[in-house]
Amino acid sequence: MPVLVVFAPTACGKTRLALELFGKDSASPFAGCAELISADSMQVYKGMDIGTAKPNALELVQLPHHLIDLQEPDVPFSAGEFVRRSDQLCREIYGRGRLPLVLGGTGFYIKNFLCGLPTTPQADQELRVQLQRRMEREGAASLYRQLQELDPVAAGRIHCNDHYRILRALEVCLSSGRPQSSFLLSPQLRSQFNFCIIILWRERKELYQRIDQRIARMMEEGLVQEVASLVAAGYKADDPGMQAIGYREFLLPEVQELEEPLRTQRIQELICRDSRRYAKRQYTYFKGIPQAHHFHAEDSDAIQSHIGAFIRESFLGESFL
Q1: Pairing of β 65-66 and β 194-201
Q2: How far is CA 245 from CA 116, 201, 249, 262, 275, in A?
Q3: Which among 64, 130, 151, 260 has most CB atoms closer than 10 A?
């Protein structure tokens, strides 16, 4: 079964490219032939639209999207759940005579989708409850320090405020006696899919400028009001969704002490800083993916040619061209 996978860091232009290639009213030969599976760990959350750059209503009409607006911001969504749902969606999309397009910037999700989930111990509910109680008593920083001692590799991949992943990594370490990072992904792509993997890139200076411009637009479009609505609804800093870049910065103690307009200005600076750092980590994490092809994000002709060859080689030419 053919599956097109497109990975790119934040603000690189991957959604725009997908619409140009597969939007039902586009001039592309692939217009209307695909359905998109979002590989963005935060677009799954309801009410988080501006800060996650979710597609708008018109874009959803042009290109069907899956795995967005699935659940509330206080409910965890794991890489395992992403892989299971994506597998099912790929089968359904292909069954409708369309090309599954997995697109996003959450490298952890995409890597697990491409290579399969590592075999880690099943959840230990009793241990999980104990760790949650410890986190309530001692705070996340205490458990994060323990994780740094037990598994510095895993700790290096997890943000210090990502309570869900800290708990899971510690749970694996303590229940198995092995670091979570020792349960490695397979270096091989899964055989049940015929993958075409595309990685988009831009020069760092250009990408950082685009990030800053995107954050400025988000603030103009009402990100402050969106976060205020989520807080008013009862969502807190330690909820999985509220730990996303573009949301967590609003809830930092150092920011709460500032008066306006300095507060909003400082929040915007922090979101830009964290987004740039994240973009750098995204590229680093995605290194070494086998059979990946790298294209500049503006080289749409070369990308279109590569996708066309993939479709023809997959014996799907009559369905899509």
Answers
A1: unpaired
A2: 27, 21, 7, 19, 7
A3: 151
Quick one: tokens of 22?
A: 């597969």
Q: For residues 12 and 210, give the distance between their C-alpha atoms in angstroms, rounded to a whole number.
A: 8
Q: Are strands 34-38 and 194-201 parallel, antiparallel or unpaired?
A: unpaired
SS3 276: helix
pLDDT digits (tens, 9 = 90+) for 69-87: 999 999 989 888 999 999 9
Q: What angle do CA 73, 5, 42 make, to 5 degrees?
A: 10
Joined together, the tokens standing for residue 264 give 């909003």
For 116-150, letters b (16+ CB in 10 Å) and e give bbeebbeeeeebeeebeebbeeeebeebbebbeeb
Question: For residue 65, which of 51, 52, 79, 80 has the smallest C-alpha distance?
Answer: 52
Residue 291, phi-psi category: left (phi > 0), alpha (psi -120 to 50), beta (remainder) = left
CA torsion angle for 84, 90, 91, 94 (degrees, to 10)? 180
pLDDT of residue 317: 46
Helices 125-138/163-176 angle, 10° precision: 130
Instruction: Count other Cβ atoms within 10 Å, centred on residue 55.
Output: 20
SS3 call for 40: coil
pLDDT tens digits, one per residue of 203-224: 999 999 999 999 999 999 999 9
d(CA 216, CA 11): 12
Rounded to the nearest 5°, which phi and psi values hold at 147?
A: -65, -40
Q: Where are the alpha helices (DSSP H) in the chain?
A: 14-22, 57-62, 79-95, 107-115, 125-138, 140-150, 152-157, 163-176, 204-221, 223-232, 253-256, 262-285, 300-313, 317-320
Check pLDDT > 60 for residue 172.
yes
CA 140 to chain CA mean position, Å: 23
The whole-angstrom separation of Cα 165 and Cα 183 is 15
Please compute Rg for the chain using Cα positions: 20
